[in-house]
Amino acid sequence: MHEFHPFGRIPALQDGSDRIFESKAICRYLVAKYASNDSELSLPKEAEDVGAFEQAASVEFSYFDPIVTKLAYEKLFKK
Questions:
Q1: Which of 6, 21, 30, 39 could cross-link with 35 by S-S, CB 3.0 to 4.6 Å?
Q2: pLDDT tens across the length of the chain (79 residues)
Q3: pLDDT of residue 15
Q4: Cα separations in angstroms, 4 against 13, 16, 21, 31
Q5: Cis ω on the peptide bond leading into residue 11 (within 30° of 0)?
Q6: Under DSSP, is residue 21 helix (H, G, I), strand (E, B) or coil?
């Protein structure tokens, strides 16, 4: 599957003719396509909820992920 990821990495998903890469995008796609409307997994519909969701995702991406990535590299791969 990684042949259609523009950076040649994983994760990547092909669902029929849809091709999605990056874990957050894959998760959002799967929820949007397959979760029932009454499921706890359904994506927010109200503007305030969408804003809160996107804000949390942005904080995770901008502030948490870079630090954890460096820490994981130091602890797991650099020995």
A1: 39
A2: 456 777 777 788 899 999 988 888 888 888 888 877 777 777 777 888 888 888 888 888 788 778 888 888 888 777 6
A3: 92
A4: 9, 14, 8, 22
A5: yes
A6: strand
Residue pair 4/17 in contact by the 8 Å Cβ criterion: no
Non-local (6+) Cβ contacts of 12 within 8 A are 1, 2, 4, 5, 19, 20, 21, 26
Q: What is the DSSP string of 24-39?
A: HHHHHHHHHHHS-TTS
Q: How far apart are CA 11 and CA 71, in angstroms?
A: 21
28 vs 61: CA distance, rounded Å? 15
CA torsion sign, 67 to 68 to 71 to 73?
negative
Q: What is the pLDDT of residue 47?
A: 86
